[in-house]
Amino acid sequence: MDYDVNAQLAKLRVPFDKKYISKLPKPTQFQTNEVKKSFKAGIRCNICGGWHHPKVVHLDYVGHAALTDRLLEVDIMWNWEPVATDDSGAPALTVEGGMWIKLTICGLTRLGYGNADGKKGGDGVKEIIGDAIRNGAMRFGAALDQWSKADLTGNYPNEPSEGLQPKGQNMTVEQIKEKVTKIVGSGAGVTALEDWIDSTEGSFSHLNATDLSSVTRFIGEVVRSVQSKEASTSNNKTPGDKQETVERIKDGIDWFGEKGKKSSEMIKWGNEKISGLTSRSDKEEAGKYLDEAIRTLERPTKGTVPMEVNV
Fold first, then answer.
1. Residue 55 near residue 257 (C-beta atoms within 8 A)
2. 287, 191 Cβ separation under 8 angstroms
3. 33 in a domain, yes or no?
4. Cα-trace Rg, the chain
5. φ, ψ for residue 13, nearest 5 deg
């Protein structure tokens, strides 16, 4: 195909017009529970039109149609595929119910991860796909201004320029595989792996197509291995107070959010409680809940927020 790849990819960085940016309410678990207990605890929102807790934070998001239009404008042949498949050939899901994908635009492939945030059935599947495309497109720069919590204008008066370089920029394939193995081997699980790849340290943009394929295939094998171990642990586990213990930690995290406590206090308390859990899956479940609560606390004061994509 005869075109300037760099020029085409640069179009993904162009900010979306305000008319394509909508508002999405993101309540905490505590706020959701309050409205469930009493309908009168909610309000008809004049921002999004929904009915929810009066103190809900709203996030900016770019709709699926607008993002798809941008991708088609840049490369009409863009495509995505799952990193791993199950025995039936369908996309393989992680233990948390998410999915890793490879998003290819103008011949360049990068990873993306999506989950359904509790949605089930067909809507859940579409949400996973849309979220993964959103996540992958962010790595190409699409709506990056909404994802970032930092100034993307290039004005960094208090930071040295070398500190802005992605930490994973010069990692070899073997170094990346070693890092992936170390993360999952520590017991942190797929969630920690997702967080690492979401960070600048997990940037694989410097890899050629062959090396990227090797890395993504390796990650898929690791994910399947973790899934198998988690399933085995779950099947051999003695029924008991699992839900009560994890739910108690979640309730405590919600309390910190309700009282407006500092995120550092929530992190300290949450990590202490989570370390006392015996099951790795329990730790991952509670840890993911803690991470989401922390991000919710921080978003209102940071200015910019991630986009959402609904398929």
1. no
2. yes
3. no
4. 20
5. -80, -10
Q: Are 227 and 191 in contact (CB under 8 A)?
A: no
pTM of the model: 0.47
Decide which of 75 and 257 is more confident.
75
247 domain-assigned: yes
- Residue 84 is encoded by which pair of tokens? 């791993």
Q: What is the pLDDT of residues 109-166, one digit of tens each?
A: 999 999 887 778 888 899 899 889 988 998 898 887 766 543 444 443 343 333 333 3
Asked if 99 and 92 count as a contact pair (C-beta separation under 8 A), the reply is yes
Cβ–Cβ under 8 Å, residues 311 and 130: yes
When divided into structural domains, the chain yields a total of 1
Q: Provide the residue count of the chain.
A: 311
Distance between CA atoms of 61 and 143, rounded to whole angstroms?
9
H runs (alpha helix) in 117-189: 121-139, 144-147, 173-185
d(CA 10, CA 276): 48
Does residue 63 fall inside a structural domain?
no
Full domain range(s) for residue 246: 242-299
* Cα-based torsion angle of the residue sequence 96, 98, 100, 106 in order, rounded to the nearest 10 degrees: -160
Contact 67, 133 (CB under 8 A): yes
| Residue closest to 136 by CA, chosen among 14, 284, 309, 294 | 309
DSSP 157: T
